[in-house]
């Protein structure tokens, strides 16, 4: 993810949190009420500016407690190399994020923010964190269990810095080695990429047997929300040109580039990041058919109305599903 560029996740942001943030007599802060009732109550109280702010994710470098509070910002991120200071400790990361969170909680509605980071081969922005091989090397191992254990280790280190959201895994299927981001792909073989989606239960936890299939799941305070990216076809661009046009018919797109997303949804992935590339000349962000009709409609990619992420990971942070 480029610095100063928020990830393009699917459109609708929902936040869940406990009564610890304020007066539980307000319906949206009452954890005993159904999620639908809480969301409806909250949206009814929000101004247009607050709704815009909550749908916005900004880079840490342009953030401050004042910016967050004045603009009702819902999310922050650290892109590659975006750190509190060179060789900052985990405690310094935690302190920075805590200050940001306090500013968000001091707003009129007290909505907490979520912090995301490119922890794509370990918590690689953080000095002293465990660094693992890039996806291309992990794919060569043909060992999904290894990838799952790497996800679990990464989640622990991400949460140790106060962060709740990792922009991983990249499940692009690299079809042209001239693409400069092929190292982010597990394989040119979609079946190997599908197997490596085991990173998701590593990051988020195993979905319980009685849990609704395809719904988001984060197991607790030692886990983070994962992100399947970049939907869809980014590894198949013409001549391997980054952010370019993937020229392929629908059958090819669905049989090569889409299968790993189906596996990711079955494993409860919390978010999907829309691609910066195009499909047959149409920018993915403008592709209503694939995003709205297919991802959100046919695949039913939406919030689980019976599950409260906030209670899942504890009262200190919020997790969302797009």
UniProtKB/TrEMBL annotation:
Key words, A-Z: Hydrolase, Signal
Domain Glycoside hydrolase family 3 N-terminal: start-end pairs: 47-302
A GO molecular function held by the record: beta-glucosidase activity
Stored Pfam families: Glyco_hydro_3 (PF00933)
Family matches, as SUPFAM superfamilies: (Trans)glycosidases (SSF51445)
Domain of life: Eukaryota
GO biological process annotation, one example: glucan catabolic process
InterPro entries for this protein: Cellulose_Degrad_GH3 (IPR051915), GH (IPR017853), Glyco_hydro_3_N (IPR001764), Glyco_hydro_3_N_sf (IPR036962)
Span of the signal peptide: 1-22
Protein name stated in the entry: Beta-glucosidase BoGH3B-like isoform X2
Tagged with keyword Zinc-finger: no
